Amino acid sequence: MRKNSLKLLLLAGISSAFFAGCSSETEEKTTTAKETQTQIQSDGQTETFTDETDSKESASEETVSEEITGEAVSTERADTASHTIVDHAGRTVEIPEAIDSIVVTDTLPLPSVLSLFLDSADEITGISPVSMSAAKGGLLGQLYPEILDADTAFFTGNELNVEALLELEPDLVFYNAGSTAIEEALENAGLTAVAVSVSKWNFDAAETYKQWMLLLEEIFPEREGLADRAAAYSDEVAEEVSSLTSDLTENEKKDVFFLFNYNDTGIVTSGEKFWGQYWCDAVNAVNVSRDVPAEKSNAIVNMEQIYSWDPEVIFISNFTTAMPEDVYENTISDYDWSSVAAVKEKQVFKMPLGAYRTFTPGADTPMTLLWVAKQVYPELFESVDLVSRTQEYYRTVFGVELTGEQAKAIYQ
Description:
This protein is of the alpha/beta class and about 400 residues long.
């Protein structure tokens, strides 16, 4: 068999449009950051994103890129040998009745959502090394230790090795809807492939999570009802947060800044078209970097801009090794955060690590929303017990009993 390797495009070229009035010194620093931010380090692994656009033509460029209680859930397969679904790329896919081997390529949070949806990772035989690093460091590997046996060798660096993938004999392969080159390779290999979108719903993490669950329910109809339970719980949390924050005046809304990636060569934030905007909108806060002209993980900024915004709260994503102490103590490069309001008031927070990294959509999205709201407006959410609420959520939606320590560890 001829060995086929597909080069996954690294982060889409950093936008050359930056803020008017920047000095030449700032522009030089920005250029350095552009050269180095093509890869995001996460738990020692290289994090590369794949994202999709609205059209197949533009998507081919591969831009940036994761209850059983109550009603009984049937575990019996349908009598038919297969059924068809329409995936997020608009493709009609014939799903086999027997699915014993599942591989998830470049939709990084999906292995965690899929494991909880199936209440098992036995059938998941291959995942990305980046997904694996989160499984080892977070909750997923504890709940479903079999996920730790999944193969990651079909990814070498940033290359997808089709021959190695075929050796896993997958019955079903999930891939990012923007990865048209991967789609073509999977189809040429004769594999059943399902496209999953990460940006079709305009970086609304809650809606994206709902749509992933609905797609999984179409593929696995024996799990009918689970997507509705997840959606109902998500809506309940969103309504709770909105009811407590909707009366805030413009002056009362907190200014929030997201550190998506942070190292000695650059600072990447979240503009309007990335997940940070959703978290701010959902808790009625202000994303101070909303107007940064670059999209997704291309939004590079400098300290002068951060000084002008003077955010009151800073969130550090799980896609960087930086911690609040690195901001408080200025341990990275020559950045000086000491004059920023969030630093002076000790309001810098590392985002939770649950079943996956919570900056993105995933199974933890409803609880992450509650956590973000509690950090931004602690006086409004003082009575919220995140540990017990998280246990309730996992029990109600997935039928999974978390210990108090497991629930608590998500937020540490």
